[in-house]
Specification:
Elements: H1 14-29, H2 31-34, E1 42-47, H3 53-64, E2 68-72, H4 88-95, E3 101-106, H5 111-118, E4 123-128, H6 134-147, E5 153-160, H7 167-179, E6 181-188, H8 197-205, E7 210-214, E8 226-229, H9 253-259, H10 264-267, E9 275-277, H11 298-317, H12 326-333
Parallel strand pairs: 1-2, 1-3, 3-4, 5-6, 5-8, 6-7, 8-9
Helix pairs in contact: 1-11, 3-11, 4-5, 6-7, 6-11
The structure holds phosphoric acid mono(formamide)ester.
């Protein structure tokens, strides 16, 4: 995988993804051994959309590997200045002559693919519009494997929020179609914010998978093993002035609050081992009182996100640790994920 890009996890085999997740676990438990793996390498970061977790997680991962970070300061996409309207192709082609690996977040779907095709060094998609967010998915998978005993099988997984616009939900579901077994998805959204047809088509084509679409969490909460929340509420404003998530009017705020919000009261009906995930940032869809519930896993996702990005950077740079013995790592987790 040295020299590869990560635009979509679809480009990687199930075995390659599992290998990376095993390496992430090693990174977590061998910080000292990992601390010089990327010494001398430089990672360029280009974030055309706001990011806190993903950007800092990548930067921290590179620093923990002993490498360096060059932050492209970014330019407004709607500027009239021709110099700043350089194409992604030219910009990435140029940066790939300077840096060893490139991380890009961009509001346009397909932008990471354009960047990868232009680049002479590995490009990592840190979120392209409403399309995909593969490194968030790696963090999500690491969290699920940890909380579900290393198993991605026989689970009922709820996804709730603006499923039309949620790149994290799209990436997670399509990747689970290749790594999971016998999964049932409960897709909770308004009619306007349904999961896109291209994701539903993937579910339809996956043997042993099924799904239902509902318009409220309340009737289904007791059936869920996993609840993956995404935001209905606009929490970030893009440089272009558009909200990342489709906004809602105050008129239907009460409905959103009743049907799409996780509260301690809602969780009284949930399973004791429910895992509640959210890529963050959150709006109002998870009451802060839920944070102290042991079922809340959204801060664990952030922590594991550094490990998976360390594993990813080391893999794409070809800087793998000689001490890594993946058979031992996964055996300890007791995984029965089919490979
Ligand atoms: N989960 C996620 O992508 O968060 P940021 O927007 O803060 O990077």
């Amino acid at each position: 995988m040295k020299g590869s890009h990560l635009v979509s996890l679809d480009e990687w085999s199930a075995e390659q993804i599992l290998h990376l997740l095993r390496l992430a676990e090693w990174m977590r438990t061998h910080r000292d051994d990992a601390s010089q793996l990327a010494a001398g390498s430089v990672m360029a970061t280009l974030f055309y959309q706001p990011s806190t977790r993903t950007r800092l997680s990548f930067e921290t991962a590179m620093l923990r590997l002993g490498g360096h970070v060059a932050e492209y300061e970014g330019r407004s996409l709607d500027t009239d200045d021709l110099v700043f309207r350089e194409t992604i192709h030219d910009l990435i082609r140029s940066l790939s002559q300077i840096d060893d690996i490139i991380v890009i977040r961009h509001p346009r779907e397909g932008s990471a693919l354009v960047a990868a095709r232009a680049s002479d060094v590995p490009v990592i998609n840190a979120g392209d519009g409403g399309h995909l967010h593969p490194t968030q998915t790696l963090a999500d998978l690491a969290t699920l494997l940890r909380l579900k005993g290393g198993k991605l099988r026989n689970l009922t997984i709820g996804l709730c929020g603006n499923l039309a616009a949620s790149r994290t939900a799209h990436s997670l579901v399509t990747t689970l179609c290749r790594l999971g077994h016998n999964l049932h998805f409960v897709l909770v959204s308004t009619r306007q914010n349904r999961m896109p047809d291209w994701v539903l088509a993937r579910l339809d084509r996956t043997p042993g998978f099924s799904y239902e679409e509902v318009d409220s969490l309340r009737p289904v909460i007791s059936s869920l093993d996993v609840l993956y929340m995404t935001s209905f509420y606009p929490t970030q404003v893009e440089p272009t002035g558009q909200a990342r998530q489709a906004s809602n009017s105050t008129a239907n705020g009460k409905r959103l609050s009743r049907d799409y919000r996780v509260t301690p009261e809602l969780l009284r009906a949930a399973k004791p081992d429910l895992a509640i995930l959210h890529p963050l940032p959150r709006g109002l869809e998870i009451d802060r009182a839920v944070d102290d519930d042991p079922r809340a896993a959204y801060f664990t996702q952030i922590s594991l996100g550094v490990d998976v990005r360390m594993a990813l950077i080391a893999t794409l740079l070809g800087k793998l640790p000689q001490q890594f013995d993946e058979s031992v790592v996964f055996a300890e987790q007791g995984s029965d994920v089919d490979e």
